[in-house]
């Protein structure tokens, strides 16, 4: 597709031409493309044309209507990667209801982690569409919080559902500025933050991605394995494909984590053009690399692998390319990108085969993360007191969400000019964005700017740690009382003696000095689960800092030490 | 059957670090400190070795090493 053709294809995503019936007509008439999805029950990939999905969603919407789901109803939805989730999602949209995805029970091995992820969100909703195996946990939370919740069991919703191809949509179709969904993202476990995404936000972001990647619905095949309760999985592949009727091949994150080389085989079988990865998943693939399991695999069809959701390491990208080149992986396919739920998903991405450039500051290298997508504006606010540091990134545009949902209340989070402060720090290099890190984890040593994640990645990648969990906390001179900034590193262990820790700390100290040139003032070994994360998996730096300053974090040694 | 248990033990050791002894009563998460990615790697190794796929519902019943041993006794029902 030419740029002009791409733009024309998604013209009706823009305000003057927007008409939801256009999207529905496209789905209804699309027989030749659809969703190929791995189904656990039958243990194979099953194909559903978009037109079938559309008719099933209408029948599902009628059932949901009987349950009392109406336009504007906020509904929690367990995001298991299966066809039922997809149909329910579309059905809710047809009714004008507002879905909000939560992780399914199957996403976690630990019962406690699952409960912690959903506990604080449930009390702010009155309806939860979930699976049978989740009911006891949800009921226990409701009892604990004395909260009344209507649970709609997925199985019951589909039991005896009509198979008619009736075209009458039961609800009132959504308007451009109606809320499309609420994406729960950062925020501590106790106060989860939901990002309110409108159809204006969603369609403009999808349009920006579509044009930048020159998606061609008749030929493009999207590969999907990311969780549907994560913005990159929900918007970046599922909704992007659904709203543009592009073929998508979906497997669950659990299946992917078990059998990632089978996903690579699917790339060959379905001639997948694009998919998304995270830096840590590229590392896991490299770690598990098994030549025997990859026999006959071809990655030649891939034109774009978006790498995002966490800091991207150039060494990882180089090692991945070097390892998979012999399977046909082309240069410049790995494309670091930048986005956040507050921008629906994408802020900047590279074109197909554009890859990335390397930007070096004070001998430290960072990959570019593409150019800003159409419809989004990026402003970088530099702090004159800090030299050569990059500035805080602010975003504005039709993709940018204006509100958050915190404890059931909508809170405005853009400023008077419509900008949202991402708290990320970066700069432009030849129109391409470079991300240095988070403003709240940046610290200055010897006149140079560093970020906690640089030290954390170095320690984790070194494989010296027993567990891949570490946090680097810079303490300000006011915290330390010494007039100096001090660096504390807390890492998780399974079991360690005092003697083993001394030896390990010596190795870690040398590693950080050699690679980053910084001296870590103190290492603390803590037991598994002591490092606290937000609901979206980000480290809770402030909480960890406060716990340390209060003296609540100290070394945990094995009993025989 | 002992061959299968030995194989599972071999896979367990390959995904764990700093653990040399495996006892059937040990909980995979709490005692062996496996994270979810390591558990998925372990299950993937078993599935690849025996050419089976363990459904998600079955996976959720596996808590201990002993559960894992029991699961591999009936692998034939999950064969591809």
Can you offer a commentary on this structure?
- The complex is a heterodimer of chains A (561) and B (80).
- Chain A is built from 17 helices and 29 strands.
- Chain A has a four-stranded mixed sheet with strand order 2-1-10-9, sandwiched between helices. A four-stranded parallel sheet of chain A has the order 4-3-5-6.
- The N and C termini of chain A lie far apart (66 Å).
- The mean pLDDT of chain A is 90.
- Chain B has 80 residues and is mostly helical.
- Chain B has one domain: Orthogonal Bundle (Non-ribosomal Peptide Synthetase Peptidyl Carrier Protein, Chain A), CATH 1.10.1200.
- Chain B contains four helices and no strands.
- In chain B, helix 1 runs antiparallel to helix 2.
- Chain B is globular.
- Chain B starts with a helix and ends in a 7-residue tail after the last helix.
- The A-B interface holds A 40-41, 43, 105-106, 108-110, 133, 252, 254, 257-260, 284, 288, 293, 466-468, 494-495, 528 and B 17-19, 28-29, 33, 35-37, 39-41, 43-44, 47-48, 53, 55-57, 59-60, 78, 80.
Task: Give a nutshell description of this structure.
By secondary structure, chain A is α/β, with parallel strands linked by helices. Helix content of chain A is 32%, strand content 26%. Chain A has 17 helices and 29 strands.
């Amino acid at each position: 597709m030419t740029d002009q053709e791409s733009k024309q294809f998604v013209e009706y995503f823009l305000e003057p031409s927007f008409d939801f019936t256009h999207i529905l007509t496209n789905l209804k008439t699309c027989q030749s493309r659809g969703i190929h999805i791995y189904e656990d029950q039958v243990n194979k990939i099953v194909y559903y044309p978009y037109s079938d999905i559309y008719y099933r969603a209408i029948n599902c919407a009628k059932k949901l209507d009987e349950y009392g789901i109406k336009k504007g109803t906020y509904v929690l939805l367990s995001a298991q990667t299966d066809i039922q989730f997809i149909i329910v999602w579309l059905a809710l949209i047809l009714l004008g209801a507002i879905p909000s995805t939560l992780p399914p029970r199957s996403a976690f091995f630990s019962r406690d982690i699952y409960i912690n992820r959903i506990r604080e969100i449930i009390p702010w909703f009155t309806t939860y569409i979930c699976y049978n195996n989740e009911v006891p946990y949800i009921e226990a939370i409701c009892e604990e919080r004395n909260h009344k919740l209507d649970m709609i069991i997925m199985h019951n919703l589909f039991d005896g559902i009509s198979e008619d191809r009736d075209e009458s949509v039961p609800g009132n179709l959504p308007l451009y500025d109606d809320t499309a969904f609420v994406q729960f993202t950062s925020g501590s476990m106790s106060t989860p933050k939901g990002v309110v995404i409108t159809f204006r936000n969603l369609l403009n972001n999808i349009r920006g991605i579509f044009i930048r990647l020159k998606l061609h619905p008749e030929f493009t095949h999207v590969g999907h394995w990311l969780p549907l309760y994560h913005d990159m999985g929900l918007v970046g592949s599922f909704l992007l494909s659904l709203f543009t009727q592009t073929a998508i091949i979906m497997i669950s994150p659990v299946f992917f984590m078990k059998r990632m080389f089978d996903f690579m085989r699917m790339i060959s079988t379905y001639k997948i053009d694009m998919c998304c990865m995270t830096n840590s998943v590229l590392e896991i693939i490299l770690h598990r690399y098994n030549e025997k399991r990859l026999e006959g695999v071809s990655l030649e069809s891939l034109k774009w692998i978006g790498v995002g959701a966490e800091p991207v390491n150039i060494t990882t990208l180089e090692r991945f390319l070097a390892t998979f080149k012999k399977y046909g992986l082309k240069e410049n396919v790995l494309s670091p990108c930048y986005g956040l739920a507050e921008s629906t998903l994408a802020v900047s991405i590279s074109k197909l085969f554009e890859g990335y450039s390397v930007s070096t500051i004070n001998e430290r290298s960072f990959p570019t993360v593409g150019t800003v997508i159409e419809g989004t504006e990026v402003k970088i606010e530099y702090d004159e007191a800090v030299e050569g540091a990059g500035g805080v990134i602010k975003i504005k545009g039709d993709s940018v969400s204006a509100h958050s949902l915190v404890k059931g209340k909508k809170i405005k989070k853009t400023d008077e000019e419509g900008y949202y402060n991402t708290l990320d720090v970066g700069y432009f290099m030849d129109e391409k964005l470079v991300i240095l890190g988070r403003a709240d984890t940046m610290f200055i040593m010897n006149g140079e700017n560093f970020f906690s994640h640089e030290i954390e990645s170095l320690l984790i990648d070194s494989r010296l740690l027993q567990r891949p969990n570490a946090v680097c906390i810079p303490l300000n001179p006011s915290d330390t009382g010494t007039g100096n900034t001090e660096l504390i590193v807390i890492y998780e262990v399974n079991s360690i003696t005092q003697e083993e820790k001394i030896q390990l700390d010596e190795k870690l100290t040398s590693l950080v000095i050699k690679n980053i040139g910084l001296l870590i003032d103190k290492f603390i070994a803590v037991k598994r689960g002591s490092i606290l994360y937000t609901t979206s998996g980000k480290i809770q730096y402030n909480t960890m800092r406060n716990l340390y300053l209060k003296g609540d974090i100290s070394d945990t040694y094995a009993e025989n030490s | 059957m002992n061959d299968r248990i030995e194989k599972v033990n071999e896979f367990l050791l390959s995904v764990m670090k700093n653990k040399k002894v495996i006892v059937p009563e040990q909980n995979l998460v709490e005692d062996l400190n496996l994270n979810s990615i390591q558990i998925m790697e372990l299950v993937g190794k078993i599935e690849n070795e025996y050419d089976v796929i363990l459904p998600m519902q079955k996976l959720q019943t596996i808590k201990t090493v002993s559960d894992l041993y029991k699961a591999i006794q009936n692998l034939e029902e999950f064969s591809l």
